[in-house]
Design brief:
The protein is mainly beta and 714 residues long. 7% of the residues lie in helices and 31% in strands. The chain is built from seven helices and 43 strands. The protein has a five-stranded mixed beta sheet with strand order 1-35-36-39-40, with no helix packed on it. Strand 26 and strand 27 form a beta hairpin. The relative contact order is 0.14.
């Protein structure tokens, strides 16, 4: 019996235990055999483990088992630790630093067992997402463990899990320098082989240099998340150019590709920007499908092996802040896609938002859970968003579990731009923050005193107030409003992905209220605004999050006018809307209801001690940073991240790892951390001991990106 037969058989047996006779699909409820095989714990990305050796009665007794630091694994100290390790067959695996070195380590001691680093290339130096390595993928070929990794230079590697050496008789030879002779795939030729601009480039006499990668005038591609393996198919994910910094309209589409995990043979490609005759092509006007790019799947994926479906989320096309050159709703941007892993065909999709111009890309995969809704068993996919909306679908059919309605949104006034007339809003569950519906209405202004409320409403009277989808105004605007105002409820959940307990149906969502008045757009008049700090290829390489300019044609409008600023006013530094900083909310997804919601941390002293609030008992609005969490047994293990993107939040988040009762949110134990938490954590059982590993680091305290492990004393 091969591994795939064993996997399917195990899934069927599990289904008999946990699923009714009439159901069609089942994903593993939690990690098995003490392992943590995926960066999200399970293939359903719930970040849940049933391990309970560490529990509320002994959490305070945890001791630091080891620390593994990244200091010596790159040319510079990297303070970010976004790679969640996996634990398989008695070994921990992860990646580290902008080099994206693959690391195998002893789970009991943290000692490094082997490392692998891709040979240097100019295309690696040019990569804009070097710091976004989220981890590795594990698979087995004829019983042999294999580690798969997609690098910033857009190579796909297969490494022997025991030695770290590139796999023999897999893929091909490294196309630069003749090393190594096997175990790698150059993904660029596969990505561009049927792309019109690339074909035109070759016809015109252009040549492909694998050291350099795609010529700058055509675009750029990279990778952020590792691939995912489903039923023997390795699905490669594209990280792509950060579109929000792009000034030109052309780029390479981030098409999704499937490979045979055993041989490296490409099996299929899915066009994220639909070609003529494909579903969604009609949503691209102005023939924008010919030159538009990006539209990538930089976030991790989840999957249901029994259904044979992989679930992928996408971002916007170039240029993200302006859509005049790409009018239309732009499928499959801002979408949740369910793709048949054997054929690469779309099974279903839902566009979470249309024609993205707000950086509302989907930064986390759907959580796969099996729900009981009104007595009906439903295989569910729950999608969280930056906006603070929660979407729930039948993951087999794509049908919404609860109705989703289209709501009209404010339209653009930038000449030549396009905005969708409506955007989808779930009718249930309610969003993490109701402010996202209509923005700062009277319900949400500060009303600690009648005077503050009156002043806040007077300020708002000069603005056009909306919810999530307020467009930027042109700097030539001379209308009746000072600016538009909008609000987010979820925030950037790259750094604090949701978690879920599939045994109880509870989902945990970290969020924060953010209201803003966007900067005005300015006409470019065909003059690019390139990043002056981005080095030329080979001239010292790229910084971890630098944004190179690609393409040829400058967009007509770009954000950031120097003539006018559109910031949201305050009252002597006091925000005019009620604060809701670091919050943690639990949803019972069987009913869609919130079971509890609480602030994490304390309102800042600067806010509480503001002269205008003297003598007022200000409600706790939560502290700085983000709540980062996973579920282990009956515990919600949680810490506070201090990073927002690449920025450091001040002051530092508390150096504490908390254990909360998952049913109530009550803190039942705590232990100190050496540095603030970052992005995620994981747990595993090794030689009879349960470990919890937390990703940490801080540039403010000069603590490099690291992993710290805890276990109970002997």
């Amino acid at each position: 019996m091969n591994i795939w037969t064993r996997t399917i058989t195990a899934s069927v047996n599990l289904a008999l235990l946990f699923w009714s006779a009439g159901s069609a699909a089942q994903v593993t409820l939690g990690t098995e055999n003490g392992e943590w095989r995926y960066i999200g714990g399970t293939i359903g990305h719930t970040r849940y483990s049933p391990l309970d050796q560490i529990n509320k009665n002994n959490f305070d007794d945890l001791e630091q088992a080891w620390i593994w630091r990244t200091d010596n694994f790159g040319p510079n100290v990297d303070y970010f630790s976004r790679s969640t390790p996996i634990y398989v067959d008695g070994i921990l695996y992860t990646v580290a630093t902008p080099r994206r070195q693959v690391i195998a380590m002893d789970p009991a001691t943290g000692e490094t067992l082997w490392t692998f680093r891709e040979p240097e290339t100019i295309r690696h130096q040019r990569s804009p997402r070097q710091a976004y390595g989220k981890g590795v993928t594990y698979g087995e070929i004829n019983g042999r463990g294999v580690i798969y990794i997609t690098t910033p230079g857009f190579f796909l590697w297969a490494l022997d899990a025991k030695t770290g050496r590139p796999l023999k008789d897999w893929g091909g030879a490294f196309p630069v320098g003749g090393y190594p002779e096997t175990g790698v795939i150059d993904l660029i030729p596969y990505l561009v082989d049927d792309w019109g601009p690339w074909q035109d480039y070759l016809v015109a006499g252009g040549e492909y240099d694998p050291d350099y990668g795609i010529p700058r005038e055509l675009g750029m591609v990279t990778a952020s998340a590792p691939p995912i393996i489903v039923n023997g198919v390795l699905v490669a994910l594209v990280g792509h150019q950060p579109s929000y910094g792009q000034t030109r309209i052309e780029n390479v589409p981030g098409d999704i590709m499937g490979f045979d995990m055993a041989t490296g043979e490409r099996l299929w490609k899915f066009h994220v920007i639909p070609r003529p005759g494909e579903v969604g092509h009609e949503t691209w006007h102005n023939d924008a499908w010919r030159f538009s790019g990006d539209m990538s799947t930089w976030a991790p994926a989840s999957a249901d092996p029994e259904l044979g479906l992989v679930y992928l989320v996408t971002n916007a096309s170039t240029v993200q802040a302006y859509a005049g050159h790409r009018p239309g709703d732009n499928l499959f941007g801002g979408s949740l896609l369910a793709i048949d892993v054997q054929t690469g065909e779309r099974k279903w999709h839902f566009q979470i938002h249309r024609s993205d111009q707000w950086n509302y890309d989907l930064p986390t995969p759907p959580l796969l859970m099996d729900l009981n809704v009104d007595g009906q068993q439903i295989p569910a996919a729950v999608q969280n968003t930056k906006q603070g909306l929660v979407f729930a679908f039948n993951r087999e059919t794509g049908e919404p579990i609860w109705p989703i309605e289209d709501r009209p949104v404010i339209q653009t006034e930038v000449p030549g731009n396009y905005t969708a007339a409506t955007q989808p809003y779930p009718t249930w569950p309610e969003p993490v923050d109701r402010i996202v519906f209509d923005g700062i209405t009277e319900e949400f202004v500060i009303d600690f005193t009648p005077e503050l409320k009156e002043q806040s409403l007077a300020i708002l009277n000069g603005y056009r107030v909306g919810g999530l989808y307020v467009p930027q105004l042109p700097d030539t605007y001379e209308g009746e409003f000072i600016n538009n105002i909008g609000c987010l409820g979820g925030g950037n959940i790259i750094n604090h992905p949701p978690a879920a307990d599939p045994t109880s149906g509870i989902m945990f969502n970290s969020h924060r209220r953010t209201c803003f008045a966007p900067n005005f757009m300015r006409a470019t008049n065909g003059v690019a605004r390139d990043n002056p700090n981005y080095p030329e290829p080979g001239a010292g390489g790229a910084t971890p999050n630098s944004t190179p300019t690609t393409g040829k044609t400058v967009a007509a409008w770009l954000p950031g006018s120097g003539r006018r600023r559109g910031g949201l006013p305050t009252i002597d530094g006091l925000p005019i809307f009620k604060q809701m900083n670091n919050q943690l909310t639990a949803y019972q997804m069987n009913s869609g209801e919130k079971t509890w919601s609480l602030p994490v941390g304390q309102t800042s002293k600067e806010y509480e001690d503001h002269p205008l609030l003297e003598g007022i008992d200000v409600p706790n609005s939560g502290g700085t940073g983000w709540s980062v969490q996973m579920v282990a047994g009956d515990l919600l293990v949680q810490t506070r991240a201090l990073s927002e993107g690449m920025a450091q939040i001040e002051p530092d988040a508390p150096l504490i790892l908390n254990a909360r009762d998952k049913m109530t949110g009550e803190i039942v134990g705590s232990v100190p951390l050496p540095a603030p938490g970052q992005y995620g954590m994981m747990t595993y059982m090794h030689r009879g001991k349960q470990y919890i590993v937390v990703q940490i680091g801080s540039s403010r305290t000069d603590y490099p990106g690291a992993l710290v492990a805890y276990r109970l004393p002997d």
